[in-house]
UniProtKB/TrEMBL annotation:
It comes from the Bacteria. The keyword Amino-acid biosynthesis applies. This is Aspartokinase. Gene3D superfamilies: Acetylglutamate kinase-like (3.40.1160.10), VC0802-like (3.30.2130.10). Keywords: Amino-acid biosynthesis, ATP-binding, Kinase, Lysine biosynthesis, Nucleotide-binding, Transferase.
Length: 422
């Protein structure tokens, strides 16, 4: 008997029929003697629908007062889910109780729409578990120290589940979703993508941060920090398959690098269409310029990702960087009002139609020539690379958005990811 956390994503909770299936699956685990905590997302499409309504009424502003109400609104999707799932479990004859984030409580900071979990009180949950109940906790939401409801950013239910598992020292956190594990790349883009039976924590972290939305990056960070055993698996297998089979299916995130994993130089390909590129042309090439530009951007609380500065000619250079597309207009505004007046140039160019494609693998540490293989594969497809950034276990390129799928497929082939692992 163990304490297990299950997380069910939006598609898995998408209708009463599917919720009944989730209840049957959870009931199977509970009847086998496990203490069960379940963290569901809002029903599929619901968070988008709610945020769409908000946009109809308040399209322009994004200040704190607005963000607070967005969280108040968006968090309701998960409240519907927990109530329905508790009812479905009770209908199966399994005692169950549901809680919103503030009732647990799941405490977060006050950064509305992207709050971070600070602590989770396990007392109430443990009491219910001891009383033999399945406990269902809303994904995605928490409460700040003033009692305001917060949300954890899109895809945040993954993080709720892993954080709950860490707080309860659960034996395992199982992330049930609409694919049967973590693949070499998004199987919706590359049908030949293969499921990985294991992926190292570091690779998963890099894949998530480079755009693979199968797990929210903060959930992977939590799993690493608290060493939570984490598995991604399908919610669409028949609910009554043997628990032993279910518990070993999907993809396990591992914390030790085994030899087999070392063999694959590149384990996966991630991509991200959420960024925009901004260039300032003809910037004077002198100490302090990067700080002058990016300092002002940072002061506006805008995160910068890839940065390049060209070799200078005649004491002038071009400076480019990427930001999240949602921050694009604000960044240009900051540059125009706070930066260019003192730079001696006002040539700002922007491009929102870019994407970033990354190859990820811990094998890159010990192999040379991986980046050049990547660049060759892209050049053979006639794809121009606009920016490059690397870390120990990944290489990313920024390219024209229209070549994204072509690039991902070409790289998938170039690194033999469609071939079964040796
Ligand atoms: P959920 O609603 O269950 O949280 P998400 O839509 O957030 O589901 O995440 C699952 C989706 O992630 C899959 O349907 C798939 O399209 C996408 N995805 C992106 N990259 C990968 C990958 N490397 N492996 C598996 N799925 C991926
Ligand atoms: N419902 C939230 C979203 O759509 C959280 C989640 O699904 O993980 O982003
Ligand atoms: Mg998700």
């Amino acid at each position: 008997m163990a304490l297990i956390v299950h997380k069910y994503g939006g598609t898995s909770m998408g209708s009463t029929e599917r919720i009944r299936n989730v209840a049957k699956r959870v009931a199977k685990w509970a009847r086998a003697g496990h203490q069960m905590v379940v963290v569901p997302s809002a029903m599929s499409g619901e968070t988008n629908r709610l945020l769409g309504l908000a946009k109809e009424l308040q399209p322009a502003r994004a200040d704190e007062a607005v963000q607070r109400e967005l969280d108040m609104l968006a968090s309701t999707g998960e409240q519907v889910s927990v109530g329905l799932l508790a009812l479905a479990l009770q209908a199966e004859g399994v005692p169950a109780v549901s809680y919103a984030g503030w009732q647990v409580p799941v405490r977060t900071n006050s950064a509305y729409t992207k709050a971070r979990i600070e602590s989770i009180d396990d007392a109430r949950v443990r009491k219910d578990l001891q009383a033999g109940k399945v406990v269902i906790i809303t994904g995605f939401q928490g409460v700040d120290d003033q009692g305001h409801i917060t949300t954890l950013g899109r895809g945040g239910s993954d993080t709720s589940a892993v954080a709950v598992a860490a707080a309860l020292k659960a034996a395992e956190c199982l992330i049930y979703t609409d694919v049967d594990g973590v693949y070499t790349t998004d199987p919706r883009v590359v049908p030949e993508a293969r499921r990985l039976s294991t992926i190292s924590f570091e690779e998963m972290l890099e894949m998530a941060s480079m755009g693979s939305k199968v797990l929210q990056i903060r959930s992977v960070e939590f799993a690493g920090k608290y060493q939570v055993p984490l598995r991604v698996l399908s919610s669409f297998t028949p609910w009554d398959i043997a628990i032993e089979e279910e518990a070993t299916s999907g993809t396990l995130i591992t914390f030790e690098e085994d030899e087999k994993m070392e063999q694959a130089v590149v384990s996966g390909i991630a991509f991200n269409r959420d960024e925009a590129k901004i260039s300032i042309l003809g910037v004077p090439d002198r100490p302090g310029i990067a700080y002058q530009i990016l300092g002002a951007v940072a002061d506006a609380n805008i995160e910068v990702d890839v940065i390049i500065q060209n070799v200078s000619h005649d004491g002038k250079t071009d400076f480019s960087f990427t930001v999240h597309r949602n921050d694009y207009a604000r960044t240009v505004d900051v540059l125009k009002t706070k930066v260019v007046p003192s730079l001696g140039t006002d040539r700002i160019e922007g491009d929102t139609r870019i994407c970033k494609v990354s190859i990820v693998g811990i094998g890159m540490r010990s192999h040379v020539g991986i980046a050049s293989r990547m660049f060759r594969a892209l050049s053979e497809e006639g794809i121009n690379i606009q920016m490059i950034s690397t870390s120990e276990i990944k290489t990313s390129v920024v390219i024209d958005e229209k070549y994204m799928e072509l690039a991902v497929r070409a790289l998938h082939r170039a690194f033999d990811l469609d071939q079964p692992a040796a």
